[in-house]
Design a protein that fits this description.
Elements (H helix, E strand, L loop, with lengths): L1 H27 L3 H30 L1 H39 L2 H17 L5 H10 L4 H6 L2 H4 L4 H5 L1 H6 L4 H10 L3 H29 L26 H36 L21 H8 L1 H8 L8 H6 L3 H5 L2 H7 L4 H14 L6 H8 L5 H29 L1
Helix pairs in contact: 2-3, 3-10, 3-12, 4-5, 10-11, 10-18, 11-18, 11-20, 18-20
Amino acid sequence: MAKTKYNTEKRSTLSYHRIVEDFFKKLEGKSPLKFTTKRSFEAIVFLIIFFAFFGLLAYKMTLPKMLNTFMQTAYHLLLETVFYIMAICVLMGAISKLLTEFGVVRLLENLLRPLMKPLYNLPGVAALGAIMTFLSDNPAIITLAHDKNFNRYFKKYQLVSLTNFGTAFGMGLVVVAFMTGLGFGKGALIGVAGAVVGSIVSTRLMQRSTLKAYPELDAPIDEAFGGDEQQITFKSEGGVFMRFLNSLLDGGKDGVSIGFAIIPGVLCISTIVMMLTFGGAGENGEYLGVAYEGVPVISWAANKINFIFDWLFGFKYGALISFPMTALGAVGAAIGLVPRFIAEGIIDNNAIAVFTAIGMCWSGFLSTHAAMLDSLGYRKLIGKAIGAHTIGGLCAGIAAHWLFVLLGLIF
């Protein structure tokens, strides 16, 4: 009797394990041991990093003040920076739509066409891509790349390099308007020139590395490329007043979308970066639990090698390196740092020129390049695009700084 009971329990246990095993196999298509080991290891590593990061902040600031600073910083960024950026996005969205509706974009395209081949080794129509991304954001270049009337002018390696070319001007109008609105128009304009230098370096490097690795891409675009019948047109309908009104409203809606899209980046990324950039707000550096406090790890590390950043970018304070670091992931989050730099009194027109150049050229390319190249069907070139654009962004910042110095000597 006891043996029968034992066998029954054993069969029940085996059945239970078999059910669990089948369940995990359905989830992962692999053995449950590998699945649970991998996921458990990942969870443990994450928890160690998570608690180490916030534990060190809490140890330095005390837990209540750290939590209060964390929430207060995000709250102040939302009220003082995000809504201001969103207002700019809405206004600039309306203006960009008006420029498109009434033919200004086409006029600019015709003026810039002669520069495309000598500077970028791209056909003249590529000028439209630069203008569209400058007026909106990085994905605009992919919409154009899928237009058959547009991409038929390109060879394959040239079309792939549009990811670098277009990204170098992403959200340019918003960045320039933001910097100008803060009283740094001179620096912003010099920064645009720096971004142009960076775009040339990035696009040319991408083309060269692509042809070196895949010489077969030196061929015309296949007729089947893109598979998208959508065409980019600028056809206008209706009376002048209605076109004007519709452009304002439609452009404003697009600006709202961009404004909402930057909220997570500004609140999450900028809050963390600020808490690693600035120290205590008290007179003697003590912590008060207010917004914009933190443990200045980034500033401390940057100050150790700031002679490099000073020579390359003209940065006098190590904390300023936080802007380029943040711009790698989201330019909206990066410009959210600027008002605090101004309040700290550590910024000038030279820094704004470098910020504008790097902000435009990088414009969060780490978070968009992979998706953009994947949509073009060239996922294998993601690494080359990121490498070329990293170098291009650095060249943009360096060019902006030394151009600012040169103009300062002349004028």
